[in-house]
């Protein structure tokens, strides 16, 4: 009886498993071809005043690129001799090649009639350039030599920030840290736009030369919450001329234990950009980034990089000695702020340590900071005992996360790193 009962139970299990497989197969057939819809967040501020649009340099001096847009779009030319708008509604989600041809930009083989044109997507105002999605508009402009062009993203400030905050900080960090980052990034962008944008065809680069901008891929619900939660808010402080206004709210990944005076690194002096102790970042930063490994560079390579970037240094000949000419001492460590270069001709010159570091290592991923020892190692220069990641001015991003974990608000974080500043609204 027991054996017969076990046989019947096994038969029932087999039948049940078969039924489960059949139901699963039916569900797969019914729903397998249906992909989950992804809701695209509309692009805000498309009607905002021109002063709050940002021109981001995406591509510089290129001869071709690939454009793809999922919505109907227009190509707007400013040539008064030709009708200014060309509409595209039959080339949706199709890769279109943009290239230089005989001194003219062509879009899908059709030449533009002007040296510049604006591509305006329809709602939700998103375009894909070389595989990356961006919001707003795309401006194409032929360079001065007539053989290449630039691609510039025209994007309102708030959606621009959504592409920056998520690139500069992980979206799983504390909301207060993300909000502090949003306010700092908004202020920095507006300052650079006002200070330098008037003399060029773009305001900021998409790289760490200004602040990293990745477009739509950097967005998430947490990032948009930080951007929307600080809408229009910027930092102001007393400036060198005695007036109050926005300032370059620099920030870096890991200050290493103490932030640095902006005057020592970038040469500008603002009340809010003085060094501050930072006992926070060591609790968040990865140990391999807080203490970075020794790196070496061939002396010939170092000389070549420096002379190419700074032609005035050619009078030095080969660089034979590098000396720390000025440094900020913070107890257990020192940050080099000025180096003296001595050449084979017997002449010497000086460079800011940050310029020196990024000339030798433009990525900043090997010589991670100027908190290090520079050692003559025969035919190489060695950079050892390195601490921190970045220039160290302004807000320490890992420090901001540590403060947020302790319950500090975005306002408290910003007031600590940008001493004497205050938050105002620009819209």
Written description of the protein model:
- With 427 residues, the chain is an alpha+beta fold.
- Among the domains are: 50-156, no CATH class; 287-387, no CATH class.
- 27% of the residues lie in helices and 30% in strands.
- The chain is built from ten helices and 26 strands.
- The chain has helices spanning 2-31, 157-168, 175-196, 221-229, 262-265, 287-290, 299-309, 353-360, 397-405, 410-417, and strands at 53-62, 64-68, 73-77, 85-88, 96-101, 104-107, 110-111, 116-121, 126-129, 132-135, 137-142, 149-156, 204-205, 233-238, 244-245, 251-252, 291-292, 295-298, 319-329, 334-343, 348-352, 373-377, 380-384, 386-387, 395-396, 422-425.
- The strands form seven sheets. Strands 4-3-8-11-12-1-13 form a seven-stranded mixed β-sheet. A six-stranded antiparallel β-sheet has the order 7-6-5-2-9-10.
- The longest helix is centred in the N-terminal third of the chain and has 30 residues, at 2-31.
- The model is unreliable at 1-38 (pLDDT under 50).
């Amino acid at each position: 009886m027991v054996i017969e009962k076990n046989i019947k139970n096994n038969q029932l299990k087999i039948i049940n498993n078969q039924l489960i497989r059949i139901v699963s197969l039916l569900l797969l057939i019914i729903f397998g071809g249906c992909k989950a819809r992804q809701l695209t967040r509309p692009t805000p501020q498309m009607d905002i005043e021109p002063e709050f649009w940002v021109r981001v340099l995406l591509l510089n001096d290129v001869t071709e690129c690939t454009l793809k847009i999922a919505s109907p779009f227009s190509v707007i030319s400013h040539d008064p001799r030709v009708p200014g708008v060309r509409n595209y509604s039959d080339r949706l989600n199709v890769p279109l090649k943009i290239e230089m041809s005989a001194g003219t930009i062509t879009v899908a083989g059709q030449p533009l009639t002007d040296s510049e044109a604006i591509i305006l997507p329809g709602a939700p105002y998103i375009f894909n350039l070389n595989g990356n999605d961006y919001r707003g508009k795309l401006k194409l402009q032929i360079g001065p030599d007539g053989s290449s062009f630039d691609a510039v993203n025209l994007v309102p400030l708030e959606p621009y920030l959504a592409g920056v905050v998520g690139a500069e900080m992980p979206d799983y960090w504390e909301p207060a840290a993300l909000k502090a980052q949003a306010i700092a990034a908004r202020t920095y962008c507006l300052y650079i736009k006002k200070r330098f944008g008037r003399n060029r065809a773009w305001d900021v680069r998409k790289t760490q030369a200004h602040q990293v901008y990745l477009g739509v891929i950097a967005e998430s619900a947490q990032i948009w919450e930080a951007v929307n939660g600080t809408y229009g808010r910027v930092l102001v402080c007393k400036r060198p001329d005695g007036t109050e206004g926005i300032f370059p709210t620099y920030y870096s990944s890991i200050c290493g234990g103490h932030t640095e005076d902006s005057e020592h690194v970038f040469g500008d002096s603002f009340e809010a950009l003085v060094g501050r102790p930072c006992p926070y970042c060591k609790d968040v930063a990865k140990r391999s980034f807080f203490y970075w490994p020794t790196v070496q560079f061939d002396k010939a390579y170092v000389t070549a990089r420096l002379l190419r970037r700074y032609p005035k240094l050619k009078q030095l000949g080969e660089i034979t000695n590098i000396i720390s000419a000025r440094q900020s001492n913070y107890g257990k460590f020192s940050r080099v702020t000025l180096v003296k270069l001595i050449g084979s001709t017997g002449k010497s010159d000086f460079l800011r340590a940050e310029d020196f570091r990024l000339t030798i290592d433009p990525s900043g991923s090997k010589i991670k900071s100027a908190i290090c020892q520079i050692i003559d190692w025969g035919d190489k220069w060695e950079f050892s005992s390195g601490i921190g990641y970045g220039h160290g001015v302004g807000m320490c991003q890992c420090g901001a996360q540590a403060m947020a974990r302790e319950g500090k608000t975005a306002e408290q974080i910003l007031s600590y790193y940008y001493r004497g500043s205050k938050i105002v609204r620009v819209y």
